[in-house]
């Protein structure tokens, strides 16, 4: 697990590197990427379930 102190340090470093104007854009892009990944993995799991049901 990541401790709250580590999260604050990571956020501070990100703020220094990217600046306050870029962080919301990066957060939105990360969220979209995670959503797409979640949907893709869910789709793969659904396909696998469909294949297992058909073979029984």
Provide a compact summary of the structure.
With 56 residues, the chain is mostly helical.
Helical content band: over 70%
Low-pLDDT runs: none
Task: Calculate Rg over CA atoms.
Answer: 19 Å
Using the alpha-carbon principal axes, give the shape: elongated
Average residue pLDDT: 86
| Element order: H for helix, E for strand | HH
**H/I helix tally:** 2
Structural class: mainly alpha
The total count of strands amounts to 0
Strand content: under 5%
Largest sheet: none
What's the N-to-C terminus distance? 40 Å
Describe, in plain words, how this protein is organized in 3D.
The chain has 56 residues and is mainly α. It contains two helices and no strands. It is elongated. The termini are far apart. The relative contact order is 0.07.
């Amino acid at each position: 697990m990541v401790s709250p102190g580590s999260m604050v340090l990571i956020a501070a470093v990100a703020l220094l590197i990217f600046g306050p104007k870029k962080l919301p854009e990066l957060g939105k892009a990360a969220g979209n990427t995670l959503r797409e990944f979640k949907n893709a993995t869910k789709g793969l799991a659904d396909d696998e379930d469909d294949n297992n049901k058909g073979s029984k």
